[in-house]
Amino acid sequence: MSKRVAIHGFTPASQQHSLLNTPTDSPRSVAVSISPTTSSNLHNIFRQNSLSGSSASTIRPSKVLHPFATTEIRLLLLENISQGAVAHFKSQGFQVDWFPKAWSEDELVQKIGQYHAIGIRSKTKITERVIKAASKLLCIGCFCIGTNQVDLLTAAKAGIPVFNSPFSNSRSVAELVIAEIVSLSRQLGDRSREMHDGVWNKVSKGCWEVRGKTLGIIGYGHIGSQLSVLAEAFGMRVLFYDVINIMPLGSARQVETLEKLLSESDFVTLHVPELPETTGMISSKELAAMKRGSYLINNSRGKVVDIPALISALKSGQLAGAAIDVFPSEPGANGPHFNDQLNSWCSALTSLPNVILTPHIGGSTEEAQQMIGEEVSQALSRYLNYGSTIGAVNFPEVDLRAIAADEKNFVRVCHVHANQPGVLRQVNEILASHNVEKQFSDSKGDIAYLMADIADVSEADIQSIHDRISATRANIITRLLA
Ligand SMILES: NC(=O)c1ccc[n+]([C@@H]2O[C@H](COP(=O)([O-])OP(=O)(O)OC[C@H]3O[C@@H](n4cnc5c(N)ncnc54)[C@H](O)[C@@H]3O)[C@@H](O)[C@H]2O)c1
Q1: Distance from the CA of 383 to the center of ligand 1, in angstroms?
Q2: Is the alpha carbon torsion for 72, 404, 45, 162 positive or negative?
Q3: Which of 124, 291, 365, 374 shows its CA 20 to 30 Å from the CA of 59?
């Protein structure tokens, strides 16, 4: 991979004054993430506190940095990305080209060279060919959960961090599970289908309140823990099983083994990632270990449950019902595609009573879409403006605390380089005659990223630091923010 030397990234002091006077320089325009990761939270708390004025007596306001003359930075947004995200980028002074559809590889190769950032959903493929044509590209935002539409390794080698929004829909999934618990317990799916067919079937046999019943949560992460709180508010007793020890919320209780959870729960719900260990984690043996007449819910990943084994357990009455939102093979488009050609057992599953089937909609709400738009647009502008890679999926996560507004003549060095011995020594030699206020570096695979805030630098110093670091052997891209 050839070295990239940032031709942008340094705004001469003569231009800084006018930039700082634009409305986009309002401290309120500084990115605030809603990512629930600890590091992001600390980052945000710091930034929010320093901006809100609520703790003005203890925290100095932070300086708004500018990587470019704001009229120069261009973003390409494809696949109908939310207007909220467009508004956010425009508020930062970026130029935005917005398109409702995905672009083909050829179209991208032809046009991506003019853009500094791109926002996509799942249909646009960012391949090696596209990345090679993206001579100015600094970052990629996936306005969705997954990132496998991007060649992450090639992007990292080109110095391009990729951001997504993995947890924006946790609440939406947890709420759907609550709805499914009640629906299964009251056989709502069947009653509704009967009424649509003109059949009045008023029954109470086999229908239960959920109050006092036990919910067993497998995987107590973002979704599992949200669900725990909601279920307790419904009067349920909550048990959970996780591979790591986690502080329970409310009165929930962690159990030592999966078997214990299965044997004590009236409802079992899965919230684990797809891993070799979780593939087929619920099969005949586990279903047999569940209470007779209990219910299974899977909104996690399709391969976690062995569906033919589930069908047998439902047919035998071992389970009284199931709700399934995710499947080992899912259709690529909406339409009448959920059939035995897709999965050999589809018709066996759809013919069973008290089985709620949904087309992977656990996280599909307007609120989740809006939060994805906010989170990814803020991650992109935080990288473009401040160099922070917190939340990047293919890059070392590096950030520095903000430069205070009253700290003059500071510059932030953002140096993406190959992960080789001797790089830090070389960079520190270049910075040796300056006061390095703070510095942080981390690596991931072949890529390393160094951020450093340098005090007391003149305009000539900044140009020299930029040119000398950019000329080092391991340099991939160096940007200076002032
Ligand atoms: N249906 C949907 O639309 C939808 C939407 C969002 C997320 N999801 C899926 O839901 C799942 C959970 O998402 P999340 O955001 O809560 O993830 P998370 O990473 O926050 O939590 C996952 C939890 O599972 C635990 N875990 C991992 N392996 C385990 C094992 N073998 N046994 C028990 N626990 C294990 C982890 O320790 C972690 O606490 C993921 O698979 C995600 O892809 C589905």
Answers
A1: 27
A2: positive
A3: 374
Claim to verify: residue 442 and residue 431 sit in the same structural domain = yes
Q: Cα(35)–Cα(166) distance, rounded to whole angstroms?
A: 8
- Span 255-300, pLDDT tens digits: 999 999 999 999 999 999 999 999 999 999 999 999 999 999 999 9
What predicted TM-score, i.e. pTM, was given to this entire model? 0.79
Average pLDDT over residues 98-127: 96
- Shortest-distance Cα residue to atom 27 of ligand 1: 272
Say yes or no: 385 and 341 in one domain. no
Both structure tokens of 271: 């919230």
Q: Which atom of ligand 1 is closest in space to residue 221's alpha carbon?
A: 21
Give the dihedral sign, CA 334/335/338/339.
negative
The whole domain housing 301 covers 170-357
- Domain endpoint, select from 336, 357, 378: 357
Residue 116 tokens read as: 């500094």
- Binding-site residues, ligand 1, Cβ < 6 A: 167, 169-170, 173, 218-224, 241-244, 271-275, 277-278, 299-301, 325-326, 360, 362-363
Return the exposure string of 229-242: e unless at least 16 CB atoms fall within 10 Å of the residue's CB, then b: ebbbebebbbbbbb
Expressed in angstroms and rounded, the spacing between residue 146 Cα and the centre of ligand 1 is: 13
360 is catalytic: yes
* Same domain (yes/no): 218, 325: yes
**Whole-angstrom distance, CA of residue 32 vs CA of residue 382:** 8
31 is a domain residue? no
Cα(300) to ligand 1 centroid in Å equals: 6
Predicted confidence (pLDDT) at residue 389 exceeds the cutoff of 50 = yes
Pocket test for ligand 1, best of 223, 286, 327, 369 (most atoms within 8 A of CB): 223
291 lies in the same domain as 311: yes
Domain-terminating residue out of 315, 330, 357: 357
Question: Is the four-CA dihedral 325, 330, 336, 341 of positive or negative sign?
Answer: negative
Q: Atom 10 (ligand 1): residue with closest C-alpha?
A: 300
* Sign of the four-CA dihedral 356, 357, 361, 366: negative
CA of 174 to the centre of ligand 1 (A): 12
